[in-house]
Amino acid sequence: MRRSPCKESMERTIATIVEYTDQKRPKNQYPERIISPVRSGPCCFSDMEEIGKSQEDSRWVFQYKRCKKCGFTVRVILREIPDAALAAELRKTLANSFVRNVPD
Ligand SMILES: [Zn+2]
To answer: How far is the CA of 37 from the centre of ligand 1 (A)?
Structure first.
């Protein structure tokens, strides 16, 4: 089974302010912290509202959306920022892993 490096690197790259827990009441303390239920409900499809403005980190433009009813929050990736240095780094990593896979 192939691993999915894209998804993993995405999770590492973006620091989230959302805490998913059912132990605390949902709370919107944007931009410091958002407490969200662990699971979304049927209400989340129709009652999501945008929280704050779209943000950029080193690689992604993203925005938080929060359900007005239950407080469930998701971070939506709006687009990826093209980055030549990052692309070069990725190529280097791929080249290295290829070398490691060659038997002695
Ligand atoms: Zn909801």
So the answer is: 9
Report the sign of the C-alpha dihedral through residues 19, 7, 85, 63, in that order: negative
39 C-alpha to center of ligand 1: Å?
9
Neighbours of ion ligand 1 (CB under 5 A): 41, 43-44, 67, 69-70, 72
Cβ contact 84:78 at 8 Å: no
- Quote the pTM value: 0.64
Q: How confident is the model at residue 74 (pLDDT cuts 50, 70, 90)?
A: very high
Considering all CA atoms of the chain, what is the largest pairwise distance in Å, rounded to the nearest integer? 59
How buried is residue 17: exposed, middle or buried, by Cβ count under 10 Å (0-12/13-18/19+)? middle
